Amino acid sequence: MSVDASSHEALAQRLEELLEVESFPPPEEFARDALLNDPAVYERAAADPLAWWEEQARALDWFSEWETTLNDSRPPFYTWFEGGTINASYNCLDRHVAAGLGERVAFHWRGEEGEERDITYAQLHADVQRFANALRDQGIEAGDVVGIYLPMIPEVVVAMLACARIGAPHNVVFGGFSPESVKERMEVSEAKALITADGARRKGRTAAIKQSVDEVGMPVATTIVVRHTGIDCPMGEGDVFYDEIMDAAAADCEAVALDAEHPLFILYSSGSTAKPKGILHSTGGYLTGAAYTHRIVFDLKPETDVYFCSADVGWITGHTYIVYGPLMNGATSVMYEGAPDYPDKDIWWELCERYGVTLFYTAPTAIRACMKWGEQYPGRHDLSKLRLLGTVGEPINPKAWVWYYHVIGGERCPVVDTWWQTETGSIMIAPLPGITHCKPGSATQPLPGVVAAVVDEAGDEVARGKQGLLTLRQPWPSMLRTLYRDDERYVATYFEKFGPRTYFVGDASREDADDYFWVIGRVDDVLNVSGHRMSTAEIESAVVSHPKVAECATIGAADEDTGQAVVCFVTLEGELEGTDELVAELREHVARKIGKLARPKRIVWADDLPKTRSGKIMRRLLRDIAEGRELGDVTTLRDPAVMGQLEQRIAARRDEADA
Ligand code: WT7
After folding, report:
1. How confident is the model at residue 637 (pLDDT cuts 50, 70, 90)?
2. Which residue minimizes the CA distance to atom 23 of ligand 1?
3. N or C: which terminus of the chain carries fewer CB neighbours within 10 A?
């Protein structure tokens, strides 16, 4: 089916109309059947937050009840449900199987080349037990960190839950990061083993993983290799195949009763220095937040819903809303191995139709890509089963919101814009779809139990409508516990600015007259490219490690596709000239050091960088230049002439592009 000009015109007009709508109440039918449709939940949670969180924790299966709901005697080191014992894999699997739900599909998995695998809760339960035993056979014990570097295949879920079953914190690294990044993360977390694959498939091509991992050398005793693509795979000492150790392992493995505060996982995320932060999550509190928010924000009815989150498990969204939340709630999910435009740009919608997806969760950047590709792709498929849409990762521009609402949701589905972070573990600010009137571009209000405030530099709440710093004012169960082996950095990053009882988010935000939060973006040197968090310092240090580079300043420039784009201003060593070949070389260099996702979109050669008299690079001015804005105050520059040259370079490039 092709979209003719007149229907495209009609769509554009409808979107214009929707952009005029200030707020979207829950569709009547949706509100009637919603799990939560009484706004009194907010007051009930606020009246007694601890009782509220206890109630949420009771939705899980505990081996033994906790003694202290919240221990806040040592802020900002909070603990939740101390004294209680629990196991994540038990809550995701055993209890559903025991309740007779073993035959329910946990994942409809779809491979890139169209392969389909339906994995039931019973199968997952069996695989996880066996792999937990296999890990033990390899000498992995409770407390040992296990790295996971896998594509979007069912084995990644098995690996995570098997680690959780025996109390070995997992450390998943997104497949888009380079082996060098993996190595660094394995080193700093002192991982004992790494679970990876022979290769990965991407848009019809196969790339070797095991071999590229070997090239940098991993500091782990054991590497476990999943045979996924059949690509050539060198095996050395300490290397074992997943299927072989599975075959050799015993079938039954009881889930270990772990302290509520036992670390469930570490996930490295970018901060404002070149060193990634090892965000550490607990078991009991994290699981409580994951199950609770997945249920209420997506209005999950596990018997009838089919849920599809398009994220990668390598990010927190995948941890919480592909693995732990959905499985704890007994949901049936779709898991897709490939890219959103392979085999064609309608693959997501094909999957929605094929499996009858009712709840769909993706990122604004993906929605913008879909808009660009055109409505004919979703138009090829029956999306009438969809009843709720979600977004996460960055502010959603109202245009993308109304497109999503109209084209994908058929104006029947609430759109939940969910604000949260790797650190928060689970969604903090989002609509309750049966209650909240949504405003396109706003994540709306903190969930029941969450307290947020927009403050000024002194920590005082700013007036409604004024921009300020977003903070979270009360501890919540799924908050990070610390930065792995770096308590000092944990305190300095999140609790130095406003004291140990106010969590500093790092985002700018404002609150409107209806108490709705509008998150604007980061206030630190952290970039958000396509919803992926990246550190300017990390990219700069990668660029500078190239022998021809003297200095580099990296900024995120506003980009209509990816939200922000990486732009590097680079000065070269000595008399070296910037050439197109060198641009390509530097981009590849960054891809090798960090990963393809960090590859600069633009490199601008500079004879000098704008610095203050004390030598600090003024990134603000570079952002002005890259985004084509009038320059801000330049009087504090050591050498204001630097800016003239950079402006000329940028303008010349624009002319080239226009020509
Ligand atoms: C940062 C956290 C949480 C999973 C994905 C990213 C930005 C996230 C939203 C949203 C506006 C958002 C914030 C936040 N962000 N969701 N709905 N509206 N901004 O996790 O890598 O830890 O990044 O992403 O800036 O601080 P992350």
Report:
1. confident
2. 421
3. C
